[in-house]
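FW: tagging you since you asked about this chain on Friday. Here's the raw sequence from the shared folder, copied in full. Didn't touch anything.
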Amino acid sequence: MKKNKTIYFVVAILCLCIMVVSVFASYYTVYINGKQISDYIVKDNKVYISVDELQKAGANVTKSSNSISVQFVPTGGRYQLEGVEGVEGEWVSNNALRIRVSAPQKTVNPFYGRGEGYSVRIEVANLLPNPVSPHGVGLNDILIYDDQGNVLNFSQGSFSNLFKPIPPGATVTDEVKFGIRSLQKTPGKPVKILFIFGNVGGKTYSNIRINFK
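HL: got it, structure written out here
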């Protein structure tokens, strides 16, 4: 009888532990740069994120036989630009334009006609009371960063609405192509796309950063 009580006690403790772990596991939803991750553990009420997840989020990770180095300073400092941020498939606004990015797909590098590149569907809506083009409100550059630390530039020829005035409240769509300006590099998985705005008529609208899923 005493042995049975001991077994019941052990089982009860195990069940309690499972319940505690389940509570902590379900309590946290972890995001890095706006992207939800799943490769993490919770211990002593602290969240530990794997190096692989940090690398996917854009950190530069260098591994050797006896060390791991994690560097959060992005290439060229571009991630440090101030701006509004969103997620692929959602509308993001900077008070002049509303932009939605979706459907990233592999394509041919547009700068060479061979090698790998990416195409991205970019929808742009005019929020101002007068017709304006994206370039007319200061959109100077669009960059994609991948999980290998590469920078992909956009092909201006594939963004047909860049210089075209958009009526107030209207939306235009382009399949914009991106590629690395070097055939010696192969792009990895896209992590972020940045819309960089410059000064126009004394006014500068916020940059827009969108995280890919």
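FW: Residues 7-26, 73-80 have pLDDT under 50 and may be disordered.
HL: agreed, and The first strand starts at residue 31 and ends at 32.
FW: great, closing this out.
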